[in-house]
Amino acid sequence: VCLALFLGLIFMVLFEIFRINSRRGQIPPGPRPLPFVGTIPSFKKPLEAFRSLSQYGEISAVYIGRKPVIILNTIQVTKEAFVQEAFSGRPFMPLVDWLSKGLGIAMVTFGHSWRQQRRFALHTLRNFGLGKKSVEDRVLEESRYLIAEMLKAEGKSMNPQHDIQNAVSNIICSIVFGERFDYDNKHFSYLLKILSDHFMLSGTTAVQILNLVPFIKHFPGPHQKIMQNFTELLGFIRNEVREHKETLDPDSPRDFIDAYLLEIEKQQKSNEGSTFHEENMVMSALDLFLAGTDTTATTIRWGLIYLIQNPDVQERCHEEIVRVLGYDRLPSMDDRDKLPYTYATVHEIQRCANIVPFGVAHETTQPTKLRGYDIPKGTVIMTNLAAIFSDKKHWKHPDAFNPENFLDENGNFFKPESFIAFSLGPRVCLGETLARTELFLYITSLLQRIHFSWPSEPQTIDMDGVMGVFHFPQSFNIICRSRDTKE
Ligand code: HEM
Would you say 173 is a known binding-site residue? Predict the structure, then answer.
């Protein structure tokens, strides 16, 4: 029996090698996969490994298990693909399906429900802030709280993670739930902690294995912790919904939840095929809360690292800000043109932090073609931001932190076409305008008022960071000192 099993195994492996080889030429080139396992698990340093895929040309392929995944290595081919609806689906992932039951916005495949939910969320994001400029006011108000909070520990070694995460989250919370939370609110701090754990754990290899072998969800493992965290985050949203129902005034919706409750009522009367129901509301609100918190907060944390490591850039930004605004006037989005170096620095932070280095996976919704390759329906497509953001043809200083990457020869800000941190096409980041407002206003007002340094020099920071769902920096401590306003 053992011999038969052994021979059977050998036969299966040989067959698999034959299958992979026979498809060469039909599938873009890439590193040779291991039978059944694929390519990804053999990556030790994921960022470097991804970047190196550009050696195979504009398009390459890796294998996740037995399935080829197409990697878009340049801005041109990413644009060509992502503007098309045929490339705008999302792959089915057992972990995501287990958690979100196919509801919400971010992980839902292209179709009627996604379109309705996305459109509604965009519309309410605009109405409860962006269009009326009041999101800008909220960020500025919050930046005052953030500066005060960070300076409470002036001169002492402190980890800025919680303060930044809380400040950023308060903006999406005020849009979605109509409230902000104080930095010492224990329950909210706990939620932010499990939110980060959620993104960290969901990106681990152990959890990726669950996507390949879904039945392991019934066994102990990190995925159980993810489910537990997710249930607690859902509990928070459901509680908000319950409170909103009790206090809803139909003539004066306060936020996303109120607007959604009214939309459910409206659609129930008029539209039988409506995708507006309470579970979709809960999941969409959770998507906004999750996507609207750790993305921007993680970018700002990377920003502090780059600014401390490059004190000349930190000083030049500070000088520019003080020259234009003084110490007391807070920045506004209209100041971007007057602060080209600072604005360029904010973009350079995003390029170097590269918090979503492989993008968010897309899937083809129909058979299609790309650069001569036939791409079947249901093929997973990823964009290689790790390669695009360090492409020597497109960046003046691809391998260094240097705001000159976003400045022209006259010192004016310009955005190279390769800068697609928010992706593009029908799936482009829904929170792009919000995130850009937060990044510019928070970073500018912090640099106006605070000088950042390491607690002791020299500090060794692992710039590879940690890969979860996002590219996180490792935990670090800093020293904040108030800028002397009479400097
Ligand atoms: C999707 C980046 C902030 C909400 C995405 C995608 C990227 C991205 C790369 C995937 C696009 C694609 O599939 O091609 C970022 C970055 C941010 C940021 C770098 C901050 C620095 C935000 C914020 C929100 C948000 C503040 C809150 C509203 C979303 C949602 C999606 C998304 C809901 C899913 C869109 C869809 O599937 O239709 N983001 N994002 N993001 N983002 Fe952001």
Answer: no
pTM (two decimals):
0.93
Question: Which band of pLDDT confidence, cut at 50, 70 and 90, is reported for residue 44?
Answer: low
**What is the number of alpha carbons within 13 Å of residue 80 lying toward its C-beta?**
13
Q: What span, in angstroms and rounded, lies between the C-alpha atoms of 150 and 112?
A: 45
Contacts of 325 (CB under 8 A, 6+ apart): 331, 335, 448
- The rounded Å distance from CA 81 to ligand 1 centre is 18
Other beta carbons less than 10 A from residue 267's beta carbon: 16
Q: For residue 238, how far is its CA from the centre of ligand 1 (angstroms)?
A: 23
pLDDT of residue 23: 66
Closest CA to 162 of 180, 183, 141: 183
Closest-CA residue to 402 (of 386, 417, 390, 387): 390
Residue with the smallest CA separation from ligand 1 atom 26 is: 292
For ligand 1, say whether the CB of 361 is within 6 Å of any of its atoms: no
360-384 pLDDT, tens digit per residue, is 999 999 999 999 999 999 999 999 9
* The pLDDT value given to residue 186: 96
pLDDT-wise least confident of 14-18, 218-222, 302-306, 428-432: 14-18
Q: Is 98 in the pocket of ligand 1 (CB under 6 A)?
A: no
Distance 286 CA to ligand 1 centre (A): 13
Residue 388, ligand 1, Cβ within 6 A? no
Cα(480) to centroid of ligand 1, in Å?
30
70, 86 in Cβ contact below 8 A? no
CB atoms within 10 A of CB 174: 22
- Number of CB atoms found within 10 A of residue 208's CB: 16
> How many other CB atoms are there within 10 angstroms of residue 478's CB atom?
21
Q: Is 427 in the pocket of ligand 1 (CB under 6 A)?
A: yes
